[in-house]
Amino acid sequence: MEKMFCYQCQETASGKGCTVKGVCGKNSEVAALQDELIYLTKKLCAAKVQNVKKIVTRNLFATITNANFDSKALKNFIDETKSLIPKDFEVDEMIGVMSTADEDKRSLKELITYGLKGMAAYLYHANALGFDDESINEFMQSTLSKLLDDMEIDELIKLTLVTGKFGVDVMALLDKANTSTYGDPEITKVDLGVRNNPAILISGHDFADLEQLLQQTEDTGVDVYTHGEMLPAHYYPKFKKYKHFAGNYGNAWHLQTTEFEKFNGAILLTTNCLVPPKKSYIDRVFTTGVVGFEGCKHIDEVNGKKDFSALIELAKKCKPPEELETGEIVGGFAHEQVFKVADKVVEAVKSGAIKKFVVMAGCDGRQKSRQYYADFAKALPEDTIILTAGCAKYKYIKLPLGDIGGIPRVLDAGQCNDSYSLALIALKLKEVFGLDDVNKLPIVYNIAWYEQKAVIVLLALLHLGVKNIHLGPTLPAFLSPNVAKVLVENFGIGTISDVDNDIKSMIG
């Protein structure tokens, strides 16, 4: 008998589902608690309980891959959610969970649910900066309620596409929150080396946490480095005023067990991206927000503030980081920055200097098959530009790919949510070239996915009318054959094969 079943991430066991222990590291108890929390959250929404938007957002985000492995924390979320559901409110317990008999209905419900989890992650970050949108909250709650109903296939397909529409809305909201608070990203060189000071490494995605940490570490002698998807923080003007904001350390999330070991200092995990820590450094790992792992010290928010003093005091006692590499990364090519050089880009396209743009956004991961993306980037013709966002960039952003007339061949827009920037850039180019369809642009899409934020990005792109997206390294296990067929036939969703064939089919 299966101890658990989870197939929400790309690395799910055998490409079918984790049944004993999650590849991500969660055990069967945590998996069961997460399933219960999602079901109760749907029930809470179906009961139309008022003023629960923060709880709904948190519950969805807490169950995203690599966020919360702490059974005690999940039980607390469950107890709080249960306490809000009227005792006399009941729904059919067999509907809306994995017992849905129709494979295609179940597949679409899971696709929508995972899209909502990604949506909640981005809404959570916007909320942390004081930005909100009631229409997004209302959509999330009404959709969670509907997922308890026995809906028809056509209804579910329509709801999937509407989820993509709200995916665009939530990424626009977060973009507004980030840029209003920290300024528009600028082209920036980010140092990859280390200084000779004790330090804190911040990983995840939450800029509000980073800002508080930088404020509290100022003049303490402790440097702050980014890791993984926190790298794009360096592109924002407001963060540049902190002289102790040192640079970026390491690579994507899945390498943290080696890189955290060598960092030597204190480590703060702000969102999903946590790999179960090794005993050798778990005493240096702090979690906050929805992140949790038994044995890690957790920092709660109190009256809108977080006290990082314990983290800072520990850092002061640690050795400086061990240097992993030297050099720099160039990034900051979000929509406003690219719009400023749009004339130069258009001229390069018209002259033939740039033949194609390749969107290689998304996620990195552990599987050896992901080396494909590094090989693909290296094999691209020299007249192509890579547009990227998310941690997938670590597969190629450090490669010596050069530039085209001063335009770097890898343009990094930022975090996974900044795929929104890439969409705006595409729409701007469509306008400049006077085209009636974004798919007529010299842009192809070769996107890597890992978890549920990538799901909402995909649905958002589909809503914007983008077609012929290559998605890999594998298609989601939660897509039934019939649902996968719909995506292939209606939107041209394709898989990856080998580099040479894919270069020929995508680039020509």
What is the helix tally? 16
Total beta strand runs: 17
Determine the N-to-C terminus distance: 49 Å
Strands side by side in the biggest sheet? 4-3-2-5-6-7
Largest sheet: 6 strands, parallel
Q: Strand content of the residues, in percent?
A: 5-15%
SSE-based structural type: alpha/beta
Q: How many domains make up the coordinates?
A: 3
Instruction: Kindly identify the CATH topology of the largest domain.
Output: Rossmann fold
Mean pLDDT: 95
Which residues sit in consecutive blocks of at least 5 with pLDDT less than 50?
94-99
Report the radius of gyration as a whole number of Å: 22 Å
Please describe what this structure looks like.
- The structure is a single chain.
- Helices cover 41% and strands 12% of the residues.
- The chain is an alpha/beta fold.
- The chain has 3 domains: 13-181, Substrate Binding Domain Of Dnak, Chain:A, Domain 2 (Up-down Bundle), CATH 1.20.1270.20; 188-316, Rossmann fold (3-Layer(aba) Sandwich), CATH 3.40.50; 332-507, Rossmann fold.
- The strands form 5 sheets. A 6-stranded parallel beta sheet has the order 4-3-2-5-6-7.
- Helix 4 packs across helix 14 and helix 6 (153-182) packs across helix 14 (452-463).
- The longest helix has 30 residues, at 153-182.
- It is globular.
- It starts with 27 loop residues before the first helix and ends with a helix.
- The model is unreliable at 94-99 (pLDDT under 50).
